[in-house]
Write the structure tokens for this entry.
Amino acid sequence: MTRLPWLALFVAACGADDATNPAVDAPAAPDAAPAADARDLDAAAACTSPDDCAWIDDELRTVVAVLAGAEPAAPGVTLTRRSSPTQRAQTRDYLTGRLRRLGLEPVARDYGTGQNLVVRLEPTEAGPSGPPIVVGAHFDSVPASPAAADNATGTALVVVAAGYLAGRPRRHPIELVFFDQEEIGLIGSGAYVAALVGSPVRSMHNFDMLSMDGDGDRVLELWSPAPALEALYRRHATARGFGVSPVAFTRSDHQSFVERGLPAIGVSEEFVGGDHTVHYHQPTDTLDKIDFSFLGGATRLALAAIEDDANAP
């Protein structure tokens, strides 16, 4: 989740070049990532619904642990932070490897000061399809924090979504996007939207901070939701024993889409409602603070909602 606007502007001015360059596709770390791993492929492919899939929990825990620096990302590489250009490149390398183990081929889209990582899933069903569904989360962090909650949790959810949705039928294309530089002013998502050059999207689902439920009420906050997306998440939340709390909120990547008039939603723990991690943007935002039961439930809800969206007329 991005910092306050004045701080974002200060950091951007001190540490960034022009961030408005057109996005350019490039191979994603071709020498840094393993090929598909049959065990990962089989585990993900065995999931016929989000509710009968133990792989989801294993993958969430694995990805959050690495992104938060509790496990190495590669030999000799530990992601203690994800804020500097080097740390963000190492994070992209790790995510590229994780996605390739699932049989996917991510593309790095360079926009000058950073790179978004994108996986595109084409429709599997015959017949007309609509514009793409965008599923995203930011992978960067503030300099002071290992950022387990903000936003290793959302990033892990999108990795899981990529592996799960790749094996599921879909009428519409899906782009899974790992946004760079959210913390200094939504730069990566802004570049992604600018590169659309007026092209529509069917919907944008953004995941940011899904680490805890302190009061145990199982409520997800829905940030600035488009009406149809609010209804979609409300329906799936009810079916899984969750509640939802729609609020206006601008400080995450869904806002880049909202500002262009594109249908979007942000999904989070109750940041506006006050039931959120006290370790936000702190050195203490570490792996041991994550409620994986809550994250797993939120992930399953999100997968069901996205799959529903991907197969709607």
